[in-house]
Amino acid sequence: MKLSMTDRELQFMQAAVDLARQGMNNGVGGPFGCIIVKGDRIVGKGCNSVASSNDPTAHAEVVAIRDACKNLQSFQLTDCEIYTSCEPCPMCMGAIYWARPKVVYYGATRHDAAAVGFDDSLIYKELTSPLHDRIIEMVNLGRDHAGKVFQEWNEKPDKIVY
Length: 162
Description:
By secondary structure, the protein is an alpha+beta fold. It contains seven helices and four strands; from the N terminus they run αββααβαβααα. It has helices at 5-25, 50-53, 60-72, 90-99, 110-115, 121-127, 143-155, and strands at residues 33-38, 41-47, 80-86, 103-108. It has a four-stranded mixed β-sheet. β1 (33-38) and β2 (41-47) form a beta hairpin. It is globular, with a radius of gyration of 18 Å.
C-alpha cells in the first residue's frame, strides 16, 4: 500500500520527534530531533547534543546535515527533505541554506521553544542590528591582509565552487 504524501510526511516528522524525545531522555541534549530524507530513505539524522558534546553548534539540524552529507558524500543536500521537530534557529537556518535542501518541514515553532526556555529572539534581533549596536562587540581588523586570500581564491583555477 502506497502512503499518501501527508501520511509519508507525518511519518518522517514523527521520526524526528521520536529522535528528539530519545536524545532528551538519554541525556544527550535538549528536546530537538531532525532527519533528512532523500526519496523515501532517511540519509541523515541527529538530535541535539549540545550538552553532552560541549559543542554549542551541535543542534539537531546541524548534526543531521553533517550525517547526511557524510552518508551522501556531498556537501549539498540537493533533492533532500529536512524534517525537524522544531522551527530551526538562525544558526541552523544558515546551515540549511548552505546545504540547499528542497524543503524543510518543522513541528513546533520557535515560540513554542521559547516558552520552555529555548529563546532565540535575541539572536534574531542581533542579526538585524547595526554592528556598533550589538551586544558582542564586532571589530573589523586586518581587512587588507584577509582580503588577499579572497583575491587568491578568485584566481585559483582548480577551486570547487559552492
